[in-house]
C-alpha cells in the first residue's frame, strides 16, 4: 500500500495570492493530531505526529478500521457523539484512546469525519468559575450604553478569562479595512487602540474562513507544520480543513504575526447580518494554549457583542434622533402666512439647521434663493442643482464627498457634504456641511502592506504609525438626520402647494369680482336694450300703422311698400328683444326645482299652440312622458320653442308631423361624459339640416337660413340649451337634410329614482 502526504507546497506569488488555498494546507499545528475516517469507519487520513501522543505510526493505521486500532467501545462513543448534534456543537468529546484521555473535536469534511485530538490540559478551569465570570460580565454589560463601551468591556472580560497579553475588538469598514475599536492589554505594551489596518492584512479567502469557523487558535507561531498522510489511491486527493481547529496557517500570515512579535493568537469571528462585522483578536507574546472550556467562554464574549450591535447602535443614534425630532416638531408647528415671505421665515429659523446638524441651508423657490448659515455662492449652488438634475440621482440625494459627484466647485472647503431634495417645479432645498479634515492612523503604510522579492510575497515588517490626511469630505450624514430632512422636505412641498393654491384662489377671486361687475354692466345694457328700446319701436309701429290706415290720402305703392317693411322690421326687432330678455333671465330665475309632470307640460303647450298647429295643419303624436325635477315654466318654454322651431322649418312638400317619445322608466344613459336617467325626443319631418351644424345651431344668433326665407331671431334653440343647462340636463340635435330633425333632451337622475337606489 502506497502512502503519501497532501501538503500544499505551492509558492504564493503576486498573481495567485488572492487564491491561496489556505483551506487545504495539507498540514496541522503540532499541539494535537488528526484522523480522517470515512463512512465505513476506515482511517483515510492521519497526521505524522500521532506517534508523539500514542504508541502508533500513521503508516500502520491508514486503511484500517477505527475499531481495529482503538477498540469497539471507543468507536461506539464516537458514533453516539457524532449523532448528538446538540452536544457536538458545544463541548468536545472526552475520549480515551489507548488508555490516554483526549479531547476530540469532530466535524464532517465531504464524506470524511475529521477527528482532532488534543491531550487533556492540566489544571482545567472549573465550569463554575467560568459561569461566575460570565454572570458578572452580563451584569456589567447592562451598565454600558454605547457600542464602544460594550466592546471595551468585552475586550477586558476576554483578556481576564483567557489570560492573553492583548485583546482587541477589530471592526471592519465597508471595504474590510480594519480599525482597533476597543482594546485591553498589558500596561507595558504599546496600545493599538484607534489604529487602522488595510484590507490586505486579512485577504478574501481568510475572511471566508472566518465566516465558516468562528474560532481560530494558533498555540505557537514558531511551530513546524505537521503533514497529513493518506493512502495514495486517487489523484488530487485532499482534505478540506475549513472547520478545523488544528489547521495549519498560511505562511504569509505566520510571517505577518512574527513581524509583529506575536507568539500565540486566538481569533473569534463577529458575524452581524450575515457579514463579517469584526474580530476579537487575542495576542500573546509567547506560546499559549487554552482549554476548550475557556475557548467556549471566549466565543461567548463574541456572541455578546453581535447580539447587541443593533441595540447599541440604536442607543448611539437615539440622542441624535431625539434632537432632530424636536427640531422637526418646532419647524412644522410654525404659524406661517400663505405668502412668499413664509420661505424667508423658514430659512432664517435656526431649527432648520439643527434638523440634520447642518452648517448651512438654501431654499430655491422660483427665481429666488433663500440662504442661512455657511453656504456656497449662488454660482456653486446652481452647479450643484444642474449636476443633480442631469444625473440619475432622482428627487433625493445625499453625500459626504461632493467632489466625487459635482466637479469644478470653488468652495469644497465650505461644501463637502449635502442633502438635496426636489420640491417640484424646479424648487429644491439643500442642507450643507463643510469639509472635515480627517486623520487616519495606520499601523504602517497601507500601500506597502505586501512586499515582493525573488522568493515570492511577504507581509510588511513595519507597523510604525503612518498618518493619512483625508480632505474634501464632511462628516457622514446619519440615518436620523436623513429621515428628519426627508420629513421636512415633504412638509415644505405641501407648503408650496398651499401657497400656489392660495395664489390661484386669489387670482380667481379677482377674476370673479371682475366677472361680477361685467355681468352687472351687461344686465344694465340688457335692460336698456329690452325696455328702453321698446318705446321707440312702439312709436315706429304706431306711426306706420296710422299712415297705412289713413284713408284721406292714399299713399303711393312705393311708400306703402316702405311702410310695410318698416313695420315688419320693427316687429322682428321687438321679438328679438323679447327673446334676448328671456335668454338672459333664465340664469337669474329664483324658482326652486320641483316634481314636474311632462304630460301636463305637453298638454298646456298644445293648448297654447292650438291655433298655430291648426293653421299649419300639423299632426302632433305624443306618448306618455315621465316625471322629472325641473322648473315648470322653463319646461313649458322649452317644449314651446322646440315645437315652434319644428313648425317654422316645416317642409313645403308635406304636412308637418311632430312625434314626441320618451323613456318610460329611469335608465342609465351616458352622453357628453355625464349620466342621465330620463330623455324626451322631438322628431319632425321638416327641412332638416346637415349634421356638421349640430352644435352650432344651439349658439345664440346662429342661423342656417336667411331672414327672407325663414323668419326668426336665432335665439330659440340657444334658449333651449340654456334652459337644459339650468336644469342640469343636456340637449342634442340630429339632422338629415330634407328629411327632418330629431331633438333629444336629457334629464339628470333624481335621488328618488329606483335605478339610483340600486
UniProtKB/TrEMBL annotation:
Its EC number is 2.7.13.3. It holds the Pfam family HATPase_c. SUPFAM superfamilies: ATPase domain of HSP90 chaperone/DNA topoisomerase II/histidine kinase, GAF domain-like, Homodimeric domain of signal transducing histidine kinase, PYP-like sensor domain (PAS domain). It catalyses: ATP + protein L-histidine = ADP + protein N-phospho-L-histidine. This is histidine kinase. The lineage of its organism: Bacteria, Pseudomonadati, Bacteroidota, Flavobacteriia, Flavobacteriales. The gene is cph1. It comes from the Bacteria. SMART domains: GAF (SM00065), HATPase_c (SM00387). In the N-terminal section; belongs to the phytochrome family. Coiled coil: none annotated.
